[in-house]
Design goal:
mainly alpha; Helix Hairpins; 12 helices
Length: 268
């Protein structure tokens, strides 16, 4: 069977156009921007998992699935006479050229941080020129998961000069918020103080150039591994966590702690 599409980047856009055309796939033809929302989110998370796994084949596959979502949305818009894939590509290319004057113009930058600051100032200039007075933090989508949203808010604020002076001052803020939370006596205030503490921890992570989402995910993986090992230890004796006291739980938990590999020449 001859391929029903040409080679190159246009392939998936041609396939989607055929799927959406009269006589195409009934499921694809009934999709809308709104109905595709959960798939776009799902494919994004699957790509992130593939990146974490460092599996090139899986990453290529998930990038393709994400590109499929782009092609679907562009085709739906084209059918409605709003825009098409070509306009999407040209618009983002023009935006990238405009916001990278240090590459496509005669502006000089010292480092990546200066690139980001210039990027924010350029967006602010464009926004005000268009008559908008939105804040830089208004451009962070509130639909993001809370941790990513908090990180986005802080990054945008930092790019225009609102930031902690150092990781030390960020850590001091975490300690202060923790003390305030410890002194809380009612649930409503605890809700607010816990939020402040989590927000401060995100700020500390950012100051240390650590992605809090990644750090929390790895911590969760460590917990899952140790918990499963502790649980298996109990199960091998016909027990569960409810069958042992707190001291025994702690002992088993410590025993499940992975040991670092021995240094060369060290006896086991």
């Amino acid at each position: 069977m001859e391929k029903p599409y040409s080679d190159g980047i246009a392939a998936i856009f041609e396939v989607v156009r055929r799927l959406r055309a009269p006589g195409g796939c009934p499921w694809d033809r009934e999709q809308t921007h709104e109905s595709l929302r959960p798939y776009l989110l799902e494919e994004t998370y699957e790509l992130l998992e593939a990146i974490d796994s460092r599996d090139d084949d899986k990453m290529m596959e998930e990038l393709g699935d994400l590109l499929l979502q782009v092609a679907m949305h562009a085709e739906i818009a084209a059918e409605e006479g709003r825009f098409d894939a070509t306009k999407v590509s040209e618009a983002v290319a023009a935006k990238m050229v405009k916001r990278h004057p240090h590459v496509f113009g005669d502006v000089s930058v010292a480092n990546a941080d200066e690139v980001l600051r210039n990027w924010e100032h350029q967006k602010m200039h464009e926004s005000r020129k268009a008559g908008s007075e939105e804040s830089v933090v208004d451009r962070v989508p509130a639909s993001l998961p809370a941790l990513a949203w908090a990180l986005g808010l802080q990054k945008r604020a930092a790019r225009v000069g609102f930031d902690f002076a150092s990781p030390t001052t960020a850590a001091e803020s975490v300690a202060e918020e923790a003390r305030e939370l410890a002194e809380v006596t009612d649930r409503e205030r605890a809700f607010d103080e816990l939020g402040d503490l989590l927000f401060a921890i995100v700020s500390l992570a950012r100051s240390l150039k650590v992605n809090p989402e990644d750090a929390l995910r790895v911590a969760g993986q460590r917990f899952r591994t140790r918990f499963a090992a502790t649980e298996a230890s109990l199960r091998s004796e016909g027990k569960t966590f409810t069958d042992v006291d707190e001291a025994e739980k702690r002992r088993r938990w410590e025993e499940s702690q992975p040991h670092p590999p021995a240094s060369p020449g060290t006896s086991p």
